[in-house]
């Protein structure tokens, strides 16, 4: 049993990466009377990648009351209306598709898209492509920002940002809220003999640090959860082969498209994330199929970039999750709790969800009993496994034939929920009914599943030509052009506002 009020707690967060600072902001915001200290090591740098988000991050800043016009200029940030996926399919007419963040603006065109897709699955009519039916697709391509000129139009969007700058911004914001920051390295973790809870941390220069609750944000090393408690780690490696990434920055594009581009290459896929002053690129691949050097070479030639020395970084990734994110008086958040590869940029969403769910479990006046802890763990596991289903679907449904990697991805095992969805889609069953039936297990909702499966051309009649819906596409384009401003112009206005405020 843990104290019944988070507000009364003395809490230590270990780790000053994005996860640590997001956790610090949320906890201090919701529980201003909690004593929150964050320890960040000067020996281990944050991972420094993770530059794309889902719309969850918008809620995060809304919760903190921080406006886009305040944080975006400081973090080199841009808007994201969705993700473009070129090269995942060889089906004619379906070589590339856009996965939009869905909004109410899409309803008039999205419903016909679902219906046409279902018909095509039954062999009635020709396959349709999602690019014709969602407003965010032309919006992103045209370099517009998904912030409606009319504020009553509610549209979801995510962001791209410089990970290091975001960390610095969040640190300042947390300190302003009253979070104490200690620069030190934790060498040892002491447990209570009686109940096995964490008692104190041995730091290199600040001595022993004690608290009632600890948050492990130490990244892949998982100092508290994995090294100290040796909590069970459920690997996703059988489902997802990618375990490495190589990254490089290039110049900013002249048109600032509000989209991440995730292009399938020979042994994985490459992201392109447009920031205001530069473009972030990375190749996520499997070390079983490709060496570091091969991956670096393939990425640089794909980008047409010169070798840029120190600019190129190689990273390892461990894919999977803990079974228990909250164990005794330790909550694991961020890479320490697990990681699904960054194909849909979901890691910070899981950070936010874990911390929010943890905080909410203290809402009731009841004492926080172990079943609350179990509920938090179950919810986080459910969301993580739901994300895994969606990420896995990209690999399972690919139709590339050029390398062993892509052929093997097609033959790899899939988690049970995904297996049900794929079978239903392939057999032309009532896909909506199956989605409804699996609803509790799904992290991604109806539009995302249709977009992925139709967008990759997974139709029985895939030999037929794609049916272009000129009318729907024109409607979406007109809506985008009418309702949304140019992204560069909007971001410039934000920067000018920040400068003017600094002067006054
Ligand atoms: C290739 C790649 C691409 C990614 N892309 C995305 C993306 O597009 N979108 C997204 O949401 N996420 C993405 N992620 C995930 C994202 O990078 C992380 O979720 C995010 O940066 C949070 O990391 P973290 O804070 O958990 O860990 P880290 O950034 O590794 O921070 C760990 C912190 O712990 C501290 N620490 C470690 N040991 C000690 C110790 N003994 N004592 C004291 N302090 C210690 C370190 O100093 C550091 O401050 C990506 C990850 C990878 C690998």
The average pLDDT value, as a whole number, equals 94
What small molecules are bound in this structure? flavin-adenine dinucleotide
Strand residues, percent:
15-25%
Please identify the structural class as seen in this structure. alpha+beta
Number of helices: 16
Name the helicity range: 25-40%
CATH class of the largest domain: Alpha Beta
Description:
This protein is of the alpha+beta class and 504 residues long. The protein has 3 domains: 5-72 and 161-236 and 327-371, FAD/NAD(P)-binding domain (3-Layer(bba) Sandwich), CATH 3.50.50.60; 95-159 and 386-483, no CATH class; 244-316. The protein contains 16 helices and 21 strands. The protein has helices at residues 18-30, 56-64, 68-74, 107-121, 136-141, 163-177, 223-228, 292-303, 347-360, 370-396, 404-411, 416-426, 431-437, 446-455, 470-483, 487-503; strands at 10-14, 35-40, 78-80, 82-86, 96-100, 158-160, 180-183, 186-191, 198-203, 208-210, 213-216, 233-235, 244-251, 259-265, 268-274, 278-285, 313-316, 320-322, 326-327, 330-332, 338-339. The strands form 5 sheets. It has a 7-stranded mixed beta sheet. A 6-stranded mixed beta sheet has the order 7-2-1-11-20-19. The protein has a 3-stranded antiparallel beta sheet with strand order 8-9-10. Strand 9 and strand 10 (208-210) form a beta hairpin. Helix 3 (68-74) packs across helix 16 (487-503). The longest helix is centred in the last third of the chain and has 27 residues, at 370-396. The chain is globular and about 70 Å long. Bound molecules: flavin-adenine dinucleotide (FAD). Flavin-adenine dinucleotide is lined by residues 14-20, 39-41, 44, 46-47, 49-53, 163, 185-186, 217-219, 221, 223, 245, 282, 315, 317, 334-336, 342, 345, 347-348.
């Amino acid at each position: 049993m843990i104290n019944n009020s988070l507000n009364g707690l003395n809490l230590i967060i270990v780790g000053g990466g994005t996860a640590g600072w997001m956790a610090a902001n949320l906890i201090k915001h919701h529980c201003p009377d909690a004593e929150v200290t964050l320890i960040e090591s000067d020996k281990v740098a944050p991972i420094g990648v993770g530059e794309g988000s889902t719309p969850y991050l918008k809620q995060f800043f809304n919760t903190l009351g921080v406006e886009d016009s305040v944080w975006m200029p400081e973090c080199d940030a841009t808007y994201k209306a969705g993700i473009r996926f070129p090269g995942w399919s060889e089906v004619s007419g379906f070589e590339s598709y856009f996965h939009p963040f869905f909004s109410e603006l899409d309803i008039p065109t999205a419903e016909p898209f679902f219906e046409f897709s279902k018909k095509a699955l039954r062999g009635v009519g020709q396959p349709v492509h999602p690019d014709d039916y969602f407003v965010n697709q032309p919006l992103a391509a045209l370099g517009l920002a998904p912030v409606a000129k009319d504020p009553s139009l509610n549209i979801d969007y995510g962001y791209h940002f410089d990970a290091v700058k975001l960390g610095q911004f969040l640190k300042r914001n947390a300190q302003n809220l009253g979070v104490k920051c200690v620069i030190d390295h934790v060498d040892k973790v002491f447990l209570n003999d009686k109940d096995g809870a964490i008692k104190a941390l041995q730091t290199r220069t600040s001595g022993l640090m004690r608290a009632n609750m600890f948050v492990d944000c130490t990244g892949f090393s998982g100092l508290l959860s994995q090294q100290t408690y040796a909590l069970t780690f459920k690997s996703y490696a059988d489902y997802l082969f990618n375990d490495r990434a190589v990254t490089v920055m290039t110049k900013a594009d002249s048109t600032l498209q509000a989209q991440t581009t995730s292009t399938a290459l020979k042994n994985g896929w490459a992201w392109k994330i447009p920031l205001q002053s530069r473009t972030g690129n990375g190749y996520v691949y499997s070390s079983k199929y490709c060496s570091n050097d091969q991956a670096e070479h393939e990425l640089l030639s794909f980008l047409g970039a010169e070798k840029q020395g120190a600019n190129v970084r190689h990273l390892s990734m461990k894919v999977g999750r803990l079974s228990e994110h909250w164990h005794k008086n330790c909550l694991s958040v961020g890479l320490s709790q697990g990681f699904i590869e960054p194909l849909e940029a979901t890691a910070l969403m899981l950070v936010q969800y874990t911390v929010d769910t943890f905080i909410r479990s203290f809402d009731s006046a009841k004492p926080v009993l172990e079943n609350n802890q179990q509920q938090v763990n179950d919810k986080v596991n459910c969301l993580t496994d739901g994300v895994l289903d969606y990420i896995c679907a990209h690999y399972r449904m690919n139709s590339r034939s050029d390398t062993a990697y892509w052929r093997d991805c097609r033959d790899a095992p899939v988690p049970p929920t995904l297996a049900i969805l794929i079978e239903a889609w392939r057999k032309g069953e009532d896909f909506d009914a199956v989605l409804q039936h699996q609803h509790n297990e799904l992290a991604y909702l109806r539009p995302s599943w249709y977009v992925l499966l139709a967008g990759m051309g997974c139709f029985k009649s895939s030999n037929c030509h794609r049916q272009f819906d000129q009318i729907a596409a024109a409607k979406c384009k007109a809506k985008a052009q009418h309702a949304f401003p140019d992204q560069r112009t909007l971001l410039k206005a934000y920067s000018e506002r920040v400068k003017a405020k600094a002067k006054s």
